[in-house]
Amino acid sequence: MGSGKSRPQSNVLIVDDVPDFLKETSAVLRPHFGVTVCSSPLRGLRLIKQGGIDLLITTLVMRELDGLEVIRRVRGSGNALPIIMVTGFGNENTAIEATRVGATDYLTKPVEPEELIARARRALTYADVQEEVDEPLVLSQDTTMLEVIEVCRRVARSPSRVLILGETGTGKELFARMLHARSQRAREPFVDVNCAAIPPNLLESELFGHERGAFTGATERRVGRFEEAGEGTLFLDEIGELGIAMQSKLLRVLQTGDFSRVGGSRNLRSQARVIAATNRDLSQEVQAGRFRADLYYRLNVVTLEVPPLRQRFGDIPILVRHFSRKFAQPGHEPLGFSSEAMQRLCAYGWPGNVRELEHLIERLSVLVTRGEVRLSDLPAHFQGVTEAAPVAPAPTNRPYHEALREFQRTYFQNLIAAAHGNLAAAARQAGMDRSQFFRKVQSLHLITGS
């Protein structure tokens, strides 16, 4: 980066409860940025919500709210502003955790003034680039989902092929777009093809193009998706639906990079990165003889497995708030949800995953006019959903360890539902250390995690 001043409109918020740190850091940054200091993390979160903040610098250890929780709340609200964490108490694990929950950068005290300025400029520049390429935002506080996001970020800048696995509606295309947006191909085309939506007899022409007169109705030359992608990204969604003949033709392109238009003889060369996705278990498809093993291994260089929404119900309140803002009617505030309605949403199985939730919130935003969604406003198939039952005396006709586990599952399930999916708040209510709480609910399979 150059040594000139950053844009005048770049506003930095520094959050810490140590006055000396606020004074020293703001003195370093003020010649280069607009600076606001805040000694209260909760007040800092309110300032961010009001808007006008371009970069957040927070420390790790604060009495009111620790820095990791500040980052979680910023990201949980759907805000993608860059965040730098500065601490003198952390270690490598702290840096990894900060990155996983959404920090853009991490610095250990003492920080040299020049380094702090450079890191701030880099974070702001990176945010500008991401805004230009329109990187999709994946909202989650689930440990498994955060691991998938982290792998996605690491592999994005490599040329490796990626296979994205997940049920319908989990957001596989969102991850494909994130891979593209964070790659060196971000300014090149992103071309998506839904292999299940194109008739098999037209798919070859769709992918590779055709020459004039190649078949009946081919009145002019057509450029295929491989050509259209150029040096960008070609996303092949629902690749498990390809027939064996089309699989063979795709394999040739992946092996050599060469292809030709239907009805043509000239060899063309693909420079695109291929990302594929499917809701099928391709390893089982290979064993059943429905998918070529050699194509599977060509595609499966890096695998991203996107968990279904029912395995990360702690994300449901975050997504509900996000979609409520997205679909808020003109002149109206985003919908609120009663605790009973939110608990019912968290207890539902979501066979259609995030897509089903998005469609539901869009529908409610149109139909509910009072500002708060009540249990009675939810569609009929939600009315019969079984919620976490109140704690009852354990049955005596089963072993102690089974009865104890059942009680623990019910207890923690109710805690999380009452906290609207906020695991940190649920941990505080339980009087437990957050990491201890996370390990416990993972062991009970209430959230997923490695």
Structural summary, described in words:
The structure is a single chain. The chain is of the alpha/beta class and 450 residues long. The protein contains 19 helices and 16 strands. The strands form 5 sheets. It has a 5-stranded parallel beta sheet with strand order 2-1-3-4-5, with helices on both faces. Strands 7-10-13-6-14 form a 5-stranded parallel beta sheet. Helix 13 (316-326) crosses helix 15. The chain is globular, with a radius of gyration of 25 Å.
Give a short synopsis of this structure.
With about 450 residues, the chain is of the alpha/beta class.
- SS-based class: alpha/beta
Number of helices: 19
Q: Mean pLDDT, as a whole number? A: 83
Fraction of helical residues? 40-55%
Poorly predicted regions are 1-7, 387-394
How many domains, in number, for the residues? 4
Task: Indicate the radius of gyration in whole angstroms.
Answer: 25 Å
If classified by CATH, what would the architecture of the largest domain be? 3-Layer(aba) Sandwich
**CATH topology assignment of the largest domain:** Rossmann fold
Distance between the termini: 39 Å
Q: What proportion strand?
A: 5-15%
- Strand arrangement, largest sheet? 2-1-3-4-5
Shape: globular
CATH C-level category of the largest domain: Alpha Beta
Largest sheet: 5 strands, parallel
Q: How many strands appear in the DSSP assignment? A: 16
Relevant CATH superfamily of the largest domain: P-loop containing nucleotide triphosphate hydrolases
